[in-house]
Prior knowledge:
The chain has a two-stranded antiparallel sheet. It is about 80% helix and about 0% strand. It contains 21 helices and two strands. It has about 500 residues and is mainly α. The longest helix is centred in the middle third of the chain and has 48 residues, at about 155-205. The chain has helices at about 1-25, 30-35, 40-55, 55-70, 75-90, 95-105, 110-115, 120-155, 155-205, 210-220, 235-245, 250-260, 265-290, 310-320, 325-360, 365-390, 395-420, 425-445, 455-475, 480-485, 490-500; strands spanning about 300-305, 305.
Amino acid sequence: MVGMKFFVISIYVFILLGIGYISMKKTKTVNDFFLGSRTVGPWISAFSYGTTYFSAVLFIGYAGKVGWGFGLSSLWIVLGNALVGSYLAWRFLAKPTRSITSKLGVLTMPAFLEARYDSRGLKIISALIIFVFLVPYSASVYMGLSYLFEVVFNIPYTVALVSMAALTAIYLVMGGYFAVTLTDFVQGIVMIAGVACLLFFIVSDPHVGGVANGLTKLAQYDNRLVKPIGPPGLIPLLSLVILTSLGPWGLPQMVQKFYAIKDVASIDTAKIVCTIFSFVVAFGAYFTGGLSRLFFNNQMPTSGGLPNPDMVMPQIITQALPEMFAVLILLLVLAASMSTLASLVLVSSSSIAIDLVRDTLYPDISTKRSVLLMRILCGLFIALSLYIAFKPTMILVLMSLSWGTIAGSFLAAYLYGLFWRGVTRAGAYAGIFTGFGLSTGLAAYYKMSDAMIPTIGSLAIVVPLIVVPLVSYFTEKYPEEHLDKIYGSRGLASKSVYQGLVGER
């Protein structure tokens, strides 16, 4: 049976490498490598968004720790992820993002901020933040994958970590965004099938004994675990909802999906598909995590003799699922994580190769050298992520720090920049510095406390939404000529914003 498990994983790996090789022949320009030439259809765009959204961080880190601590109240996060993180993101952001970035000819978040706010400095700062603070998120994904491989295959954590990093590097460096889009649809199907199997075996396992019986058993440990608000309380739960649902609105690897979609007409289909996908996948993960105490008699599993919530989900999978279905879940997490890692690496490498080198320091660099530089930076980013993943840190802490810092830095400047002519350069800078300062400053003050990091991240996201319009109200406005270049004339801009909010008819 062990040989069969390795055979299934090997087939999957060879498929990924084959797709990377085929895609390499199509990847000739930076636009090809980073956005697939803006030709991605609605279903693949939706699955690409969803598989980037949910990775090993969700299944291993969040579902385990949050589900254990909050019980079934963690299902509020599912609703937030599906309705806010997916449906409303596509509803409000996709059309204006696709239209404005295509009109301005920009490929990245830093390039958009530079064009909207007419500030080269803003571009440089944002590019550096992206490259540095996506590294811990990437590291958290590698950690989740490695824990799962360690438990399911008895592969040492270090070996699994290095193997996953090498696979990501080869697969992505060869094919870029074409490689990502060709596999995302298949990966999405694997995820849906895996979640269905996971829920079936979890509910029917003797530790649970059906939904009603499982809820009764869970309430015996702590009645609050089956209440609308779990034991940690409302503020920590609300913080997690904000961080994981509103946070993606400001993450460049998520916004990139709106840049790359084929046309505005494809967005309505992608919106529905992505919402359903997000609900199904998030529900499977958090519902399982909410019942996790039943599998361990209310005693947190350990790693190295110490309680480790990152081991909750891997051990549940090995206990509740037959071996071959455990391999399917492994493929589920691997599929989600590969897509997430691909997007993270592409976005981070582009922030240096495109925004700093090609557009700022060395504008005459050739197309061939630009693509080569992006490939080299992809490898460097993976190496840095690997280095951090070797450090003993909780997955949830790394992911929360990354999302809180990046989304806190960019969400307000990006969101107001799409819809409001009145936001100023000073307002954008104030928003970025506020979000960045709150996230990093408070994280340092509380010494990266796993109890505080999600709340810190949510504050870093929300506070700049107040700061940006406040500072913009009192600072110098842009001339109408600049605003017309971004939005069109005032009348057309109003129509564009309206269509972005309610959809085209």
